[in-house]
Amino acid sequence: MGRSPSSRVYVWDLWVRLCHWGVAAAIALAWFSAEQGVEWSQVHAWSGYAAIVLITFRVLWGVLGSETARFSQFLAGPGRVVAYLRHWRQGEPHRVGHNPLGGWAAVVLLAVPLAQAVSGLFATDDILFSGPLNPWVGSGTADLLTSLHNQLFNLVLALVVIHVLAIAAYRLFRGDRLVKPMITGYKDGGAYQPWIAPARRALALLAGVVAALVGLLAAASA
Ligand code: HEM
User: Fold this and answer.
1) What are the distances in angstroms from CA 168 to CA 112, 181, 213?
2) What is the Å distance from ligand 1's center to 127 Cα?
3) CA atoms within 13 A on the CB side of 170
4) What sign for the dihedral angle of Cα 158, 175, 90, 76?
5) Alpha carbon nearest to ligand 1 atom 30, residue
6) In order along the chain (222 residues), what is the average pLDDT of each group of 10 residues?
7) What CA–CA distance (Å, rounded) separates 101 from 106?
């Protein structure tokens, strides 16, 4: 049970929030640096490594973390997603955290940017800038992953636009204020307090070490 008074519900733990805004910042920086030309290529590469570390951490936290962070708590079957959509205006009485549709949106919003960043490790512009793992693959595979890296970014952008529009729709049509809880961790009202993982600092450290190792591997030149 959370420690806050019952009128405030601790809905997103610190690690979920740090990952969320960290990934958003990494994607913004990757986009900006990609537009700047080759002098910014190291910034572009490091924003990609940061996204890989943060998303890896979030995936581990989806197994080890507190209730609202866990995939097992928020991934719903198709029946619940359809029922949720049918009664969208009223809202379904799920306890707290991601609703049945939002849970799948979270998975897509983690998976597509991860695929984008990982494909960049193998990509090359054939002149001045290559990802560190580009020498590990043949030129056919590198071409394929380079074009995937270029195409996927449009999908990432489209998903982010849909994500922000969906959040605005919750505010406009249902009166749900979702942004503040993703900043402060707390939402107003609600009877159910989600549980926080025991020894969460130790678990976060463990997940951080593994995610950092993945990032180092990603950054390592062949
Ligand atoms: C590159 C940009 C972004 C990405 C990749 C992204 C990704 C995600 C992901 C993966 C989640 C699920 C949280 C989790 O369980 O870890 C989420 C939730 C959320 N995001 Fe974003 N996000 C982005 C930008 C934004 C922006 C600009 C806003 C503010 C308008 C925002 C507001 C939120 C909110 C309020 C939630 C919680 C929704 C709920 O209550 O279910 N996000 N986002």
Assistant:
1) 22, 14, 37
2) 36
3) 15
4) positive
5) 164
6) 63 96 98 93 95 96 94 95 88 80 97 97 90 92 96 97 97 93 92 83 91 85 50
7) 9
**Both structure tokens of 31:** 């986009």
Q: Residue 199 and residue 196: Cα distance in Å, rounded?
A: 9
Q: Which of 73, 112, 119 is nearest to 96 (CA)?
A: 73
Closest residue by Cα to atom 2, ligand 1, is 24
Looking at residue 222, what DSSP letter applies? -
Domains by residue range for the chain, with CATH: 10-219 (1.20.950.20)
With tokens 């983690």, the residue in question is 110
Q: Which atom of ligand 1 is nearest to the CA of 23?
A: 5
Return the CA Rg of the chain. Answer: 19
Give 144's contacts (C-beta < 8 A, 6+ positions apart): none
Q: Please give the model's pTM, rounded to 2 decimal places.
A: 0.92
Which ligand 1 atom is at minimum distance from the Cα of 179? 35
Which of 81, 163, 165, 179 has the most ligand 1 atoms within 8 A of CB, as the residue to mutate?
A: 163
pLDDT digits (tens, 9 = 90+) for 23-56: 999 999 999 999 998 899 999 999 999 999 999 9
